[in-house]
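Hey team,

Filing this mostly as a record. A colleague (T.K.) asked me to run one chain through the structure pipeline before their review meeting, and I want the input and output archived in the tracker in case anyone asks later how it was produced. No errors, nothing strange. Just documentation.

Input sequence:
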Amino acid sequence: MKPIQAGDHAEIIEGALGTKGPNVGKKVRVVILRGEHSEYGRIWKVEGEGLISEYGAVGTTVDCAQSWLRKIEPPGETSDKSVEKEVDAPLTQS
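Output structure:
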């Protein structure tokens, strides 16, 4: 899988408070690379619903370290290549 880039969908798997952060488990869209942090590396601006900033404010955008994000398939798309087929079969009597 390619590294995270702008436009990707991701799940927040960690935060400044580790795995106990208020945004852990939330689905977001990666917006733009904000820059590099000396400790956390690449920092991305992400958007989603009900995100809580480091200051406790509730909003739709926060900054996340790349290591805090797990890339996911966009809603409505799946990587499963299976095909559904309708099967005609005679009914059996018991």
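Quick notes for T.K.: The longest strand covers residues 41-52. Strands lie at 9-12, 27-37, 41-52, 58-65, 69-72.
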